[in-house]
Amino acid sequence: MTKAGTTVAAAQTPAPAVRRLPRRRGVELALIVLAVLLSVYGYCAVGLARTGTVPPGAVGYGAGLGVLALLAHMAVRIRAPYADPLFLPIAVLLNGLGLVLIYRLDRETPNDQAAPAQLVWSTLGVGLFIAVVLVLRDHRLLQRYAYVCVAAALGLLALPILFPAVNGARIWIRLAGFSIQPGEFAKVLLAVFFAAYLAANRNALAYAGRRLWWLQFPTGRVLGPIVTIWLLSVGVLVLERDLGTSLLFFGLFVVLLYVATGRTGWIAVGLLLAMLGAVAVGRLEPHVNQRIEDWLHPFATIEAGQGPNQLSQSLFAFAAGGVLGTGLGLGHSILIGFAAKSDFILATAGEELGLAGLAAIFLLYALLVERGYRAGLALREPFGRLLAVGLASILALQVFVIGGGVTGLIPLTGMAMPFLAQGGSSVVTNWAIVALLIRVSDSARHQYDGQEAP
Amino acid sequence: MARYIRHACAFCALLLAALLANAARVQVVQSRLYDDNPANRRATIARYGQPRGDILVGDEPVTGSVDTGEQLRFERSYRNGPLYAPVTGFASQAYGTTFLEHAGDGVLSGTDPVLSPLPLWNDMTHRLSPAGNVVTTLNRAAQQAAYRGLAGRKGAVAAIEPATGRILALVSSPSYDPGELSGNGEAVTSAWARLNHDPEKPMLNRAVRQTYPPGSTFKVVTAAAALDAGVVTDLDARTDSPDPYRLPGTTTRLTNEADDCRDASLRSAFEWSCNTVFAKLGVDVGVRDMSATARAFGFNDTRLRIPYSVAPSTFDPRVDRAQLALSSIGQFNTRATPLQMAMVAAAVADRGQLRSPYLVERTTRHNGETIAGSGAHPVRQVMNPSTATRLKELMTDVVREGTGKRAAIPGALVGGKTGTAQHGVGNSGAPYAWFVSWAQADNSLEPQVAVAVVVEDASANRGEISGGGNAAPIARDVMRAVLGP
Questions:
Q1: If 0-12 CB within 10 Å is exposed, 13-18 middle and 19+ buried, where does residue B462 land?
Q2: Which backbone phi and psi does A205 adopt, to 5 degrees?
Q3: In a domain, A70, yes or no
Q4: What's the domain range around A49?
Q5: Which residues from chain B sit within 8 angstroms of residue A302, using beta carbons?
Q6: Is residue A2, in this structure, part of any structural domain at all?
Q7: Cα dihedral sign for A132, A135, A138, A141?
Q8: Which residues form a coiled coil (chain A) (predicted)?
Q9: B24 touches A at CB < 8 Å
Q10: Count: domains in chain A
Q11: Residues A355-413: pLDDT tens digits?
Q12: Given a cut of 90, is residue A160 above it in pLDDT?
């Protein structure tokens, strides 16, 4: 479904001798239309299930989502015409579906409407996406600001310590009625820093230094700064009791180190450190200890006569969905309680869309991650490669940590499902990640056109 | 570096596979385990997500459903709750179900597979069928007459159609409104506590779940045993009975309220309720025949369901002769529910045949289509038909000229037996007033109703309590309601 205008425009430019890649912007547009239609369909399905009528806001919701998606598409068309056409439609679909799920859960909590705020944040996220795509002409620009990024990241991470804890975790700051989770933004900044540092020092890390047993250790001068940064960020997060994010940073660090150096030993050391850390934290920190107990014995509170906890409620929700689900608006995942719209949003998807819907959602994330890795593979310079791998890994790890947590695969750590969960900082950050991936993939595919990225 | 990127990508694929496999485990392989966990509220939410089916008296529902808009959406409501409480029981979100609400719960809540058009369909769709209805055998006018007659005094009434065993009235007093227990809020909790601590025990179903010493009404059973065993062959022949009667093997002397009981014939002893004559008759019949006859009437039957269970009435078969003498006049260990005594009257009225009493005429789908009818209920020959005929004669005499005159109905043949049961330590409690009877309209071929009434009125003057005075008028009103104008 390539638009006539584009083909004509492409035909008018004199083609270079080298192999030309199709830009596929028409495919992207078609998929975006499909994503918006699917979201509107879900919105209507909720209304039909709950009241028997199409909800009055359906047209407005569809139009709003459609306009946002089209603006983002236009920005991509102008500034990143070679970008992979799957990123944007998947992001639109996940964000649209997230809005539907939150709107659906809002029906159960008349005094706490989260969907309108989420729509505002989504708009901001798309705005940031457009800004990044338009302003950031070349991702390599970020390499120059690596140390600015890491300073900002540490600052953002440390900021919530000054604010009171919410639900046991000190990771929010409240401003003018909005709560922001600075750790969310920090992860992109940290990914940029890791990528830049490892790209610059990967040879030193891989080959220099002493050999101990079968491991090749780099010199402290090279390893020191990055380990310090990493320990600092994880330490701050442990102080703030944000386990999910510390796990994410740890995973991100290990993956990037491995990809940059190719040393399997790093993974072994990483896992060893992780185990030591996990055992120490699990022993010392009652909050974490409780999470692990809940994971091992999800029904312990039921047997103790205290009623089901959040995790068992979540498992009940998934089980109630079965293969095909109860249908949007017809489940009872609100029984999970206060985190139903945020950490546990996946339980609503599992109950109302079933295993089929859940698998589809996981595959959408997988496609997003795979396309990110593919962009990294296609690039020739190490910073871009590591940046793409880092951003894709953030998504993959986050989906695994929270998805595995709510389905009882691993201990639960509070985290937001990218695009789906309620949470402004999260949505904005994920749009920024997608914007960077689009930028990287544009460069990756552009280079095959015989032109270097501008 | 490309190689390591591929490795990282493969690692992510591994994570994805783990997520999918685990999701399949939770949602498919082990889903039944989670669905059936008692802490999972979904089954309860589904159960109350649709209006509950109705319990009908005649063509009219005596129940309803209220949409509360809450998570457990529909609550039970009752029209005339206290009147029908011993039949319907309650259907409470907090405290479960009782009586017909319990026995018919599968149909009323829509979970019974028989309601589903296709087997397994509901299992697949996770939906319930529309709820069905339960139609009772009750006679509205008789039920109201009984409730009005008791007028809040402690007591109970049971009425049966002798030819079928259909229960026409089942009243317990004082009663309560089961609607107070329907929901699950604070009001329900406090109503539950209040009803359970009420010394009047309004939630006790006195008609089927409470046994009383039947007193003189048990003389119907003793007379049947004596006639069947051939101990008495002529109703008008003098019996060899002293007054007072010294209980065998003891020095205790049994006396009578009435005069002229010495050597009285069965007819006059029955008419004037001579304790001495019947105590001796029971001893003469012997414990084996007495308990056989009692068992045939339904005593010591622990399996009676109407369809909810009925407290077993008792006649103790392990007694000495003195105890047998007392048992034979409805004292000692002899105890009966009002329903049991109505069964006794019904067996006499229907040529000695007894049919198991039942309350459910049929169950229907929500559109009125019948799922199951009451079907044939087993018949038991309790006594010889000739014995039943003679007992009918005796009971008719009681109403015509004996202690049961106040049960008489113009234009109908009525038979009855009064009873005043002593109870408490040293007979200190206020006695229970009993009346059992049956009635047959003059233009009818067979008796249409058998009734048992018990009034336990602690506040009444002891001398005034008698089956004839307190209980007979209630029985008369119930019978008149069944016979019609």
A1: exposed
A2: -70, -35
A3: yes
A4: 24-447
A5: 37-39
A6: no
A7: negative
A8: none
A9: yes
A10: 1
A11: 999 999 999 999 999 999 999 999 989 999 999 999 999 999 999 999 999 999 998 88
A12: no
